[in-house]
Design brief:
By secondary structure, this protein is an alpha+beta fold. It is about 35% helix and about 25% strand.
Length: about 140
């Protein structure tokens, strides 16, 4: 098993990790997109779902802009078997130690540059995220334009 320092070093923006997330109501592993690690203590992530209709209804009822719902298409570089959707209004904060010691986090691929650009834009225009959180995340994003 790698050291926690090696584990932290390996976390990369745009990588997709699968794990059971205690922050959602499911015992099944879900894909999560890494948005960066901060102070070697927390990892910002977006949790993906293949339940598009549920997300679409939520966005319709709340009036959230659809540009903040990003589709991650299944392909050979991300190992996602069904198209998955991430809500840029719902960024989760995960403790590095919890992820490391739980030993269930598995890297399964990465999003495309185009998808990462859409995620960045979704975060920028989100009205639900705190400005400080947005700045902290976007500051670490790679320049892809």
């Amino acid at each position: 098993m790698p050291s926690i320092e090696d584990f932290i070093e390996a976390l990369s923006i745009g990588d997709i990790y699968w794990f059971v997330n205690p922050q959602i109501n499911s015992l099944d592993p879900h894909p999560h997109i890494c948005l960066g690690i901060y102070d070697d203590e927390c990892v910002f992530m977006l949790c993906g779902t293949s339940q598009f209709e549920t997300k679409r209804r939520h966005f319709e009822l709340t009036g959230l802009p659809y540009e903040t719902l990003v589709r991650i298409q299944s392909n050979h570089t991300n190992t996602i078997v069904k198209d998955t959707f991430v809500d840029c209004n719902d960024i989760q904060n995960h403790d590095v130690g919890d992820l490391y010691y739980n030993k269930t986090l598995r890297k399964r691929g990465m999003v495309s540059d185009a998808e990462l650009l859409q995620i960045r834009y979704g975060i920028q225009i989100s009205e639900l995220l705190e400005e400080g959180t947005k700045k902290q995340i976007l500051r670490a994003f790679p320049e892809l334009d």
